[in-house]
Sequence to fold (156 residues):
Amino acid sequence: MFCLVTESIGAFAVLVMSTKRKVNSAKGKRYTPAEKAEVVAFVEKVNAEKGRGGQSAASAKFNISQLTISSWLKGSKGSAPAKVGRPKGAGAKVGRPKGTGAKVGRPKGSTAKVASTKGGFSSQIAKLSALAAQIDSAEAALGKLKAEFAVLKKSL
Fold:
C-alpha cells in the first residue's frame, strides 16, 4: 500500500507518493505464555498480600487492560493461561459428523440392557423404559442414603 501525500511549496501543490506502509493498529499485542504467566503470578501475589486489587495493580504495572488480565485469570485456574478465541479448526459445523449415529452408553456398574438407537420407534421406547427404571432405582437408593444421613445428623 502506498499513501499519497500533498505538500504545498509556495503557490504550487506537489503530489508525493510515500513508500510507508500503513500499520494495522487494530491488531493487539500478542503475549507469550511466559509473559502471561508472569502477569498472572503477579496478580495472585498481590491478591494474597492485600486480599484484592491484583488485576488493577498488574494493569498499571504491565500496561495491559484489565479485561485481558481477567481472561488470563479465568483460563489459568488449574493450568497455564488460556488462549482467547475459537479453537483451531472450529467452524460453523454443528452436531455429529454424518454416519456416526448417536452414541449413548450406560452408567458404570449398570446391569440394565440399553436398546440401540439405530432401531425404530419401538427400540427407542424400550430404551426410555429401561432408563426410567434405572432412574427410579437410583432415586430409591438416594432416598435411603438421605434418611441415614438425617438420622446421623440428628445424633450429633
User: Anything to note?
Assistant: The longest helix spans residues 121-154. The chain is about 45% helix and 10% strand. Residues 33-76 form one domain.
